[in-house]
Design brief:
Blueprint lengths: L17 E3 L5 E3 L1 E3 L6 H14 L3 E3 L7 H10 L8 E6 L11 H19 L6 E4 L4 H6 L8 H17 L6 E4 L3 H8 L11 E5 L11 H8 L2 E5 L12 H5 L1 H10 L3 H10 L5 E3 L4 H8 L8 H9 L20
Parallel strand pairs: 3-10, 4-5, 5-6, 6-7, 7-8, 8-9
Antiparallel strand pairs: 1-2
Helix pairs in contact: 1-2, 1-11, 3-5, 9-10
């Protein structure tokens, strides 16, 4: 249950602002997610999200629901170019055979095409590598001796080819660490196109520059996108502190907004797009009502300084390697 319910009628949906990626593509500031949804639930949720006014959808190959997401898009009646579709391919190593660099490259090419097939689309707006190679997650660094660097480069080669073929308007990564970018920048020949997006965990309680990820990515020209914006407990449920805590509920009460809206507002106020989700039509509408009001300076100061619940931008990175700008 959300901590507060709006007692007023829903306002007319405000156009969702966007950020400009390094290649000039405009990406909406909020996306309707589908993690943990099966195909049927994803179809229902995304259908509701599009009706509510969402213009961006987030899914992934390993969510096993892209057929439902694609069906919702196809039946929406909304022109394809008006919906920003983001999907993902897994990092190499989940299948042991893809620990081989050549197989990693081939599997990535296959998975990219599978995304299009399941979504029933000729292109996606953004596709990202869901996480670094498994060997890198074990060492918590994309180092060469684990084979991580070689696989990072192999996957990025496949991603660049997919992009060059016009099958994705933008390409990126998720849960990537500074050492993963080092692999790309030190490759031979040099990979001059860095990821356009890195989707990482970011929520209230982590501060405005957790482990230096925000300042680092700004310096690189890579747009961060936030997942788990309501916290990420071991049970994969939203944090009760964010949903019902004194800080979010008191600020929400002052603005006649829910605690969820307050938490989302804090993320996007930093210029970082957010992925949110709900199976409730009313909550989806609420998640879009983020631009008709503003946090006060005091609200922002209190939220910036808050340090609970804790979190790390990536489960795949060693915080010690995040020596940033």
């Amino acid at each position: 249950m959300r901590s507060l319910l709006l007692a007023v009628a829903w306002p007319v949906a405000t156009a969702v602002p966007s950020v400009t990626l390094s290649n000039g593509v405009e990406m909406p500031m909020v996306a309707a997610g589908s993690w943990q949804y099966n195909s049927s639930t994803a179809y229902s949720s995304i259908t509701s999200a599009l009706k509510a006014g969402f213009t961006m959808i987030d899914t992934a190959l390993d969510y096993h629901n892209q057929d439902g997401v694609g069906k919702a898009i196809a039946e929406s009646g909304i022109p394809r170019e008006k919906i920003f579709v983001e999907t993902k391919v897994p990092g190499c190593g989940l299948d042991p055979s893809t620990m081989n660099v050549f197989n990693c490259y081939q599997a990535t090419k296959r998975d990219l095409e599978t995304d299009l097939k399941l979504l029933n689309l000729s292109y996606v707006d953004l596709v990202i590598v869901h996480f670094p190679p498994i060997s890198s997650m074990i060492t918590r660094s994309c180092n060469s001796w684990s084979g991580g660097c070689q696989m990072v480069r192999a996957q990025w080669k496949a991603m660049n080819e997919f992009y060059a073929e016009g099958k994705a308007r933008a390409i990126g990564v998720s849960n990537y660490c500074p050492s993963c970018y080092d692999c790309l920048e030190s490759s031979n020949p040099v990979m001059t196109r860095l990821p356009m997006v890195n989707q990482v965990q970011l929520h209230l309680g982590m501060g405005t520059d957790p482990e230096g990820f925000v300042s680092y990515h700004k310096a690189k020209g890579i747009q961060l996108q936030a997942y788990s914006v309501l916290g990420n407990s071991m049970t994969h449920h939203a944090s009760s502190e964010i949903l019902n805590g004194n800080l979010t509920t008191s600020i929400g009460k002052a603005h006649n907004k829910s605690s969820v809206q307050v938490a989302l507002k804090w993320v996007i106020s930093q210029g970082i797009p957010a992925v949110t989700k709900s199976s409730s039509s009313e909550h989806l509408k609420e998640d879009l009502d983020l631009w008709s009001w503003n946090l006060t300076t005091q609200d922002k100061q209190l939220m910036d300084a808050h340090r609970s619940p804790k979190g790390s931008p990536s489960f795949a990175c060693n915080a010690a390697e995040a020596v940033l700008v």
